[in-house]
Design a protein that fits this description.
Structural class of chain A: alpha+beta
Strand content of chain A: 25-35%
Shape of chain A: globular
Helix content of chain A: 25-40%
Radius of gyration of chain A: 19 Å
Number of helices of chain A: 10
Number of domains of chain A: 2
Largest interface: A-B, 84 and 83 residues
Largest sheet of chain A: 7 strands, mixed
Oligomer: homodimer
CATH superfamily of the largest domain in chain A: PurM-like C-terminal domain
CATH topology of the largest domain in chain A: Phosphoribosyl-aminoimidazole Synthetase, Chain A, domain 2
Chain lengths: 331, 331
């Protein structure tokens, strides 16, 4: 049996079974946006993400500086989804020996830009030879301790039936940007979409405001709204209903790809906004603290799975929505 | 210019220049075995290492379980070289979709064995599709604080002229094991050497004993004795003289490859013993605490560079000794 048959999430389940935490040190292990363990009066948060040339980005179509930015930004987003503060990163480069030094310099420059923007120090890493270029960032952050001793973070497994589901910004821009890259689109709307795809702005601000307002449950949108909300539901043992018409759409996306905008927003992935789950008044307080709207798009339910409803309240089939890093996609 | 012209260490220098730590948070940044930053009353240590199929291991020649062990063990060795205590790991797998699930299960089993042996919890990671199989482990550990507020660790940049150079165990076994793998060697000596290569035993015990005895300077032997000692000399602004005849040799290596044993011990790499630099009495105290010999192999000098001397006190040319992960090796 090859791994494409069980997919990324099947492998994560096997990892969890094969590598149970053997101590009480780990407060949050495999299965949330970041791991957490106690350090001093608080907690260390840790996450890691890899970008592989030809798989996660198109090396001929995008500037190396943008690849560098994104390689760190996607990790910052995991810390944002915990409500944490990013601090120190390690950067690993797998490089074919024929890689141009100028490309690596630009990669570093993009990482440095993102590090400055989010207050991250790059403290080390590894450089190895490999047949394909890949960048792995391991990012550490911090979280405080609650009075009961648990980490003061946003978790995937804290959704409660009846709570509202909000997103922190318009969606679909990144998916539109990927399409614009593939179509070699030009013009202002395409350029804006490509920037959404390659220069995501992780929502550290929103994660922190949500935590301060009393939100307990969040995830960042990396695999796609429906799939990431599905991770929340599975971890929390609940279901969710989302009204597609209420999902906020990226303006450039509506301009460039009006017919597909809604589905790209629901399933496109890599927008790196947050999904927040909380009572309505807590979400309102989060928005007030941020000075920005929280878009309520649906509600947590009893039961299981994510239902996506059209304007007439009919179910939309999203069985194949979202992104699994290993599974074969239907032709 | 491609990266093979400037090599791994040239790229690390560029990384250091491009990504200066922007805060005072990082106590030890790029250039030591692990990074260190303050957390609570102590310090977090962090390191990461990648193993790429076909580059760092021969996927048809070694069991996946051994690859799993080694992928974590090489990181544990970096923590050992700091005198730290390993704690939590993140594991990233780059997998071709055709990878067999059984291979991944065995990888996990090997990681789990090493994790149990060294008290490490695996708390998360990432799994991505890639054209080549690679395993990246990011490992965190802990270190105490000295009275002056600095991390209580062993550093590369603390070698002092006149101090003795010791190694914590026989060398060359791993290099001999790599050769035995390539030659498809069998028999007891080959098997022992291959085990040295694929199942290294990081010296957490020796790092801790050295720190307790007052040693300030160490590095682990990953690139090779001469090259790793060179890193110490460069970081510390000193030179070193090593008497090749005093370098302890792996017994199976002497049995299997008697003619090449000394040079494999000096340049072979991946033995994951420690090089300790300290006054003779401090090294003696380390050995006494461990109940094991510390092999004194040479001395730190004024000047620069590592001199390797034969039994008659003549210089041995080791210009091409050791391992750079990117540079082309002379044909």
């Amino acid at each position: 049996m090859d791994v494409s048959e069980i997919g990324e999430f099947g492998l994560i389940d096997r990892l969890r079974a094969a590598l149970p935490a053997t101590s009480r040190r780990v407060a949050i292990g495999v299965g949330d946006d970041a791991a957490a363990w106690a350090a001093g009066d608080g907690f260390v948060l840790a996450t890691t993400d890899t970008m592989v040339a030809g798989v996660h980005f198109l090396p001929d179509a995008v500037p190396w500086r943008d690849v560098g930015w994104k390689s760190l930004a996607v990790n910052v987003s995991d810390i944002a989804a915990m409500g944490g503060t990013p601090s120190v990163a390690l950067v690993t480069l797998c490089l074919p020996p024929s890689t141009q030094v100028e490309a690596v310099d630009e990669l570093y420059a993009g990482i440095a830009e993102c590090a400055r923007a989010y207050g991250v120090d790059v403290a080390g890493g590894d450089i190895v030879s490999a047949p394909v270029l890949a960048i792995t960032v391991a990012l550490y952050g911090t979280a405080d301790r609650r009075d009961d001793g648990s980490p003061r973070v946003l978790r995937r497994d804290a959704a409660v039936a009846g709570h509202a589901i909000a997103v922190t910004g318009p969606l679909g821009g990144s998916g539109g940007g990927l399409r614009a890259l593939r179509e070699r689109g030009s013009g202002a709307a395409s350029t804006a979409l490509i920037a959404r795809h390659m220069r995501p702005r992780p929502r550290i601000d929103a994660g922190r405001a949500a935590l301060d307002a009393g939100v307990r449950c969040a995830i960042d949108i990396s695999d796609g709204l429906v799939q990431d909300l599905g991770h929340v539901c599975e971890s929390s043992g609940v279901g969710a209903t989302v009204e597609l018409a209420r999902v906020p759409l990226d303006a450039a996306l509506v301009e460039q790809y009006p017919a597909d905008a809604r589905m790209l927003a629901a399933t496109g992935g890599e927008d790196y906004e947050l999904i927040l789950v909380a009572p309505d008044d807590v979400l309102a307080a989060t928005g007030a603290a941020l000075g920005a709207p929280m878009w309520i798009i649906g509600r947590i339910t009893e039961g299981r799975g994510v239902r996506l409803l059209d304007e007439d309240g009919r179910d939309i089939d999203v069985a194949s929505g979202g992104w699994d890093h290993l599974k074969r996609t239907p032709a």
